[in-house]
Structure formats: C-alpha cells, structure tokens
Amino acid sequence: MQVFKVYFKIAKKQLRGAVFYVVIFGALMFMMSMQTSEEAGGRFQTQALDITVIDEDKSEASRALTSYLGGIHNLVELPDTQRETLFDNLYYNWISYVLVIPLGYEERLSELDTDGLVQSSKMANSARGYFVDEQIDEYLSSVTIYLSSGYTLEEALGKTADILEKGEAPEVLQFETSAGKSVNTMMIYFFQYFPYIFLSVMIMGMGPVLIVFYRRELNSRMQCSALSSLSVNVQLAAGCIVHTLAFWILFMLGALAIYGPSDLFSEKGLLLIGNSLAFLPVGTSITLLLGTAVSAGVRRNLDSILNMAANVIGLGMSFLCGIFVPQYLLGDGVLKVAHFLPAYWYVRAGNMIGGLSDEVMSYTTYRTCIGMQLLFFAAISAVYLAVSGQRKYKQVQFSGG
Questions:
Q1: Rounded to an integer, what distance in angstroms lies between the CA atom of residue 79 and that of residue 50?
Q2: Which of 32, 47, 335, 346 has the most CB atoms within 10 Å of its CB?
Q3: Residue 199: CB partners within 8 Å, gap ≥ 6?
Q4: Distance of alpha carbon 331 from alpha carbon 320, whole angstroms
Q5: Residues 6+ away with beta carbon under 8 Å from 243
Q6: What is each CA distance from 170 to 105, 167, 173, in whole angstroms?
Q7: Computed from CA positions of residues 386, 387, 390, 396, in that sequence, does the dihedral angle turn out positive or negative?
Q8: Residue 172: its pLDDT value, please?
C-alpha cells in the first residue's frame, strides 16, 4: 500500500488549504441555504408598486378603479403625460406601471364591453406589471358579473370594492405524497448547494494531490518500481475514494448537527442523502480527469489553473443546472443543455423530493435521476482512463526517444 500511504502524506501537506476551503465553502453553503429558504417562505407576499393612472374619462367608474388601485399600490403623479416622460420613468424604474383609462370607459363598462377597455404600459417581461394586469382584470370581471346580475353601475362598483377589500391573504399549501412528511426547507436547500460546494472543495483539495502524483519525477519512479500499473491505479483510486468519503461524512455530520436526526433521517432526508451519495463518484471522476488534463498540459501556475477550473465548472453547472437559479425559471434552451450535465439530474431529484418543483414525487423518476448520475460517472471515468493512458504512452515514448 505504498502509493496509498504516499497519497495521504501528500494530502496531509495540503491539509491546511483543504480545511480552509471546507470551512469557507461550508459556511457559504449554510448561509445560502438559510437565505434561500427565507426567500422561499415569503415569496407569496404582496408588494405595493409605484404606478401612474391617467384618467381621461373623469367618470364615477374611472374614479372607482383609480381608488381601488390606490388602495393597493402607490399612485404617482407625473408632471406631464407625454410619451417620452412615461417611457423615461418606466425605463429608470421610477414607476412600474402606467394605466390609461380612455374616454368612454364608463359607457363601455355599463354595456359590458370590456375587451381592450383600458390600456397599460410596462417594461417588457415585467412580472410585477403582469401582476397589476391580473388585479385590473379581476376588478373588471367582478363589476361585469354584478352588472349582468341586474345591479346598477353604482351598486356594482360598491359591491366590487367591498368584496375585493375583504379578500383573504394568500395561503401556502403543501401537498404531501407517500414519500413522507415535510422536512426542513432549509435542509433541502442545504443539499441543493452540495454539488457546487463538493466540486469546488474536491478540485481545490484533491486536485493538488493528484498533480503531485502526475509530475514526471514521481510518475517515472513509480513506473520503474516493482508495482504494476494496476496496483498503482487501484491504490490511487482507493486514496481518492477515502478522501471523497471523508468530505462527505464531514458534510453529513454538519447537516446532522444543524438539522438534527429527526429531519436528516426522515424518509425524505434519506432520499436526499442517497442523492448526494450518488453524486460523489461524479465529482471524484471530474476531479481525476481535471487533475490529469491540467498536469499533462500545464507546467506552471497549476494552483491558479485549478482555482479557475473550480470556478468555471462549479459556477457553470450551478447556473445551468438549477442550483442557483430554479429550474422552472430557466429557458427551454438552457434546460436542454443542462440535460447533458450531471448536476441537472441531482437538482431535479432534490427539487422533486423537497417539493420545490411541480414534479410529483416518484420513486421511478428518483431512480432515473440516480442512474443518470452514475452513467455520467461511467462516461467521465472512461474519458479519464483514455486521457491517462494517452499521457503514459507519451511519457514512455519520450523516455524511449
């Protein structure tokens, strides 16, 4: 077990840097999960916007609509209503929405003609603006229902104002399946950030150890020794596995200390643990491939190259696969690309377990996500073996020449 022992002698020299990265990234993961869970808990809160209402009708019905919006949002009066002024205010986010109530509004409303009854302006793809559109549509629908029921316009406006003022606060409902009771939302996000932290720590912690092994001097000595290439590779792989499991156990102990056994070892908690365990060989194979490729192609500033690679791989997967940005907010094109990355399947399984997506919990889908991660491990390992074999061939060729 000479190679195995040497692996950890080298790792011991890198221990200070590895502990530094574990502490920094661990604290970062905890803070991100805490902040994200708090934001998720308050995502249904209403928000008052700064809006401008241009009332050209000056009627009782138009004043009622303006009053209704004023009770929800902040009405902002502009010095003029020229097109340029309105667009400038929208562009610089001084206001979020402009509503124009045209002349003849009350007459058309009395005749139940609500198609294109009012005009609005907002920034393109503005979620807040569409929210105001929904409020106005709800108001007009309520008024027309009362008018259709035989109420006068004055009565319809009054009853609509009353019923909308008494609207109940939104309630968050969580539907449970046979997968078990709900678990701590913060713990779900804690596990969601695992791929980013794991890849960053492994590349920066295990990468320098591998690069030492791949240096020409040490590599040539091992090839000249009595150890076979198979024995060297097996012992090196054993060192990487123990190194990886040590970090995973440390991660699990942190989760246990923060969330307790009741959450961590619940049925959903165990599914999250299994998902993280399936990602371990993926991250290890990526680190092995990266260590081999970097040491073969670069001779100087290896630490800087590893740091850059850790940021590119970790952040790239995080943004493309839904770790930092929820998958339901990503475009179809991004998701198609993400399907070819292992972190996508990890995040998809985690979202399904934690109820963070509209995908119903299914053990079949869960097994599919686990299987896809293991397939990525096999594919990346095959590339690693090919690159490693090619590197050894070049070294032998160079020595013979």
A1: 15
A2: 346
A3: 283, 286, 287, 310, 313, 314, 317
A4: 10
A5: 7, 11, 205, 206, 209
A6: 31, 9, 10
A7: negative
A8: 43
What are 327-336's pLDDT values in tens digits? 878 888 888 9
Structure tokens that stand for 265 in this block: 């070892």
Place 105 in a pLDDT band, splitting at 50, 70 and 90: very high
- Beta pairing, strands 50-55 & 74-75: parallel
What would the two tokens of residue 311 be? 């940021």
What are the tokens at 261?
């056994």
- C-alpha span between 401 and 399 (Å, rounded): 5
User: Which residue's structure tokens are 């076979």?
Assistant: 228
Is 302 a residue whose pLDDT tops 60?
Answer: yes
Q: Is 72 exposed, middle or buried (0-12, 13-18, 19+ CB in 10 A)?
A: middle
- Which string of DSSP letters, residue by residue, matches 67-107? HHHHTTSEE---S---HHHHHHHHHTTS-SEEEEE-TTHHH
Among all chains, which residue has been given the structure tokens 């509503």?
99
**Is 282 in contact with 342 (CB distance < 8 Å)?**
yes
Which pTM does this prediction carry?
0.63
Highest mean pLDDT among 14-23, 99-108, 389-398: 99-108
Half-sphere exposure of 218 (CA within 13 A, CB side): 14
Contact 232, 6 (CB under 8 A): no
pLDDT of residue 238: 82
Phi/psi zone of residue 260: left (φ > 0), alpha (ψ -120 to 50 degrees), beta?
left
| pLDDT tens by residue, 37-71 | 555 544 444 567 889 999 999 999 999 999 999 88
Show the beta-strand stretches assigned E in 205-257.
Answer: none
Q: Which residues of 54-65 are buried (b: 16+ CB within 10 A; e: fewer)?
A: bbebebebbbbb
**Mean pLDDT for the chain overall:** 80
Both tokens of 11, joined, read 């790792």
